[in-house]
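Components:
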Amino acid sequence: MSTAIINAENLTRRFGDTIAVNSLDLEVRSGEVFGFLGHNGAGKTTTVRLFNGVLEPHEGSMRVLGLDPISDGPALRARSGVLTESASLDNRLTARDNLLIYADLFGVSRDKVTSRVAELLELFELSQHADARVATYSTGMRQRLALARTLLHDPEILFLDEPTAGLDPVAARQVDELIASLSQEKGRTVFLCTHNLVEAQKLCDRVAVLEHGRLVAQGTPVELARQYVRRLDLQIETAPEHLDLALNILSDASSLIRGLPRRTNGSLTLTITGRESIPDLLTLLVNQGVRVYRLAANEPSLEDVYFALHGEKEKDQ
Amino acid sequence: MNWRAVFAIVRKDLKVVLQNKGVIIPIIAVPLILFGLLPWLSVFVPSMVNIGGADMEELTAMIANMPAGLRDELAPYSIEQQTIVFFLVYMLAPMFLIIPLMVASVIAADSFAGERERRTLEALLYTPTTDRELFIAKLLSAWLPAIVVALAGFILYAVMANAAAWPVMGQIFFPNLMWVVMTLWVVPAAAGLGLSSMVLVSARAQGFQDAYQTGGMIVLPVLLLVFGQISGVMYFSVWVVLLLGLVLWGIDAVLIWFGSRTFRRGRLIARL
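Structure:
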């Protein structure tokens, strides 16, 4: 099992009367892409600041890369890379200058600075505009440059806050591929703060959902789906002559399905309360002589989990 | 202390400042007017007095009211030369301090408040630099150019003053010891005052303009020195200049100590 690279216990940070991060217990494992989901103001950015020793917690303890962010801030930040929500680039400087200066700040070996900067400019397809002022850049170019800056010192852990925000679909896919390769091929840990649930579903090994500073769920997307989403969409394909019979049988099986089954393109679509109903449903059909050719379950997405959690909270309130 | 990181920030701030016309224009224009133009205007004073037939005795009376030390310093010169030395060496001396004060405060406003306004500070806070390194880098970003500009202004003034006054003086009379002491001892302290006061102002300012306008009031004490000399209460002797430098360094130390207490990552990021 991978070792924990971030370990937080009872982490709490307040701003006046507002609790930005509330008793957070979190574990992020080495080499995984960890999704950190939540609304604006949920406490994601504050958590990243705490993990990098930029803010101090009021309560709780944490270790990141085996270091205490409060006392070992500089050593920790030399090994971590943070992409902030706003690109935080110097518009008046060129892209190359932005990278050269930060290469010095991150202590990139002097004899490698020029080649490392050139390599990243090339990787993010900015070489042709390397000596143009960043003020002339599009949003997508700025985001790519900010990502390049984050990778300058080849950090062991990356904190990425909305890395594909403002990117066109092609550029967004490139960034997603880069994140996946950093994790899978280079073994880097990625702490991904995002609103983009499709992206999180695609990239993240595990996710945590934060709401008003409090962790409301943590696990793999599949685990969370099974735990929090009480419905599953099924598609059943039968022999064409058995379709009406199957429709009648399922219409009477109200204990197993939610609502009524629908006929779509020669098959049936229905919603069940959970995967545990599937064997009963199949037995029911087969016992009554329906020849089932195919049964497909559409696993709930992270988006379903997110809204299920949000719905639960609203009901609680 | 990671000096490589410190000078990377200095380099960054200077490159950014050079792109800001709101900073560069006053930095270039004020020294040019004060030290390029004023010497030429000053040497016209005695000429105008003669041409206009005005009472030269008023100027000599003014000099006669000056402290004895200053009168002794002017004694070797003729009446016409005395007015030139009086204006170019003594009256304009306090004005010289405006340069390091202004340059340091305008760059510090851009470096501290401007950086926050441009939202570029956050990325810096995520680098391995310590709060102390970041603070020292920001101080140097304003202090070093202020001294360079003041030194350039001093050299320009030396050339212009001697050139403009040559027809009357017939000799190189500038700089005297007091000006050398002021340039090497008081100018760095005045630059320190400009930037340290701006560090405190920037901590509360909304942005560059806000900080610059509030911090600009730091030049007001210089005007007190100017009026102090005109009224004959004091004059810029070597000892006065040495004392002035000592006082300024003391104020700098206090202000920088307060500034360093407010310059903490946690505080800075909470204001973004």
